[in-house]
Model the fold of this input.
Amino acid sequence: MDGAGAFAQLLPLILIFAIMYFLLIRPQQKRVKEHQKMVEALRRGDQVVTQGGLIGKVTKVKDDNEIEVEVSDNVRVRVVKNTVAQVLNKTEPSGS
Done:
């Protein structure tokens, strides 16, 4: 009887954790995976928005962690890839 009473007291906590997992943790993990795929697919010519609100065109993918973005004519800034929030226009891969 004592074991069943202890389980009955823990059941609400287990249910709360399960609900939190399916409503918060799992969707967040999915968004992180989608963002990582988007960042890995960045290439020259893509128009992007950074988390700071800058809108520009990718002119160079420097290395695994950095890109160069042209925000105006002859104004280029170095941006950490992970700070790209959205890709507005995706360029088509060249067929050559």
